[in-house]
Amino acid sequence: YPDRFHANMAFGQRHGFTYHRPFVTTGGWPAPDGWEFAGAFMPWALEILPQVLDVAFDRYRLRASLTLFDGYNQFPTFEAQDAYVRQVCAILLPRMHTIQDVQIANEYWATLWRQHPQGVQWLRAHARTVRELLGSNMVLSVSGRESAAGDGTYEEAVAEARALLELDIVKYLLEKATGI
Q1: The pLDDT of residue 98 is above 90
Q2: Tens-digit pLDDT profile for residues 17-42
Q3: Which of helix, strand or coil describes residue 82?
Q4: How far apart are CA 30 and CA 63, in angstroms?
Q5: Which parts of 38-98 fold into alpha helices (H)?
Q6: How far, in Å, are 26, 27, 99, 101, 135 from residue 81 at the CA level?
Q7: Distances from the Cα of 30 to the Cαs of 88, 94, 124, in angstroms?
Q8: Looking at residues 98-119, what average pLDDT do you find?
Q9: What letter would DSSP give residue 179?
Q10: What is the DSSP letter of 35?
């Protein structure tokens, strides 16, 4: 693990990358063979997160774009989700300089948040918690239905971002405009 991590960070630095994604997946789907332990929902991932953030920034000058959730079923109750958000924020707070943005949910439309009866309300609550704990300068982002599907108008994407998380939409719009 450490050799591959350093090789990946060095590659990114050499090729002009300015950020990295610490978790390949944050869980919430049935694990494919060999991926049973992939994701932020595993305790070891949160244990190594401080070191990953520190080394990536201090040695390679790469900031993190950190996704909190894939599917809502990653943590089946709001209380479990809230505890996880607070745990991650406690790790991030002393490392704010290492964070580019916090993505509340990855492709929320495709990962069942939208279909869950309280999914959107829970995402809004998590966004408010992140803002409360990390401050209003922390950039929050979300991959929504329009950006995930690659369709819809600019105006629809803006309206979706505002309605979904009540957050600043700069990152969301850049993601929609650039496809990144």
Answers
A1: yes
A2: 999 988 645 444 444 444 444 444 56
A3: helix
A4: 29
A5: 43-60, 78-92
A6: 12, 12, 21, 19, 19
A7: 23, 33, 25
A8: 75
A9: -
A10: -
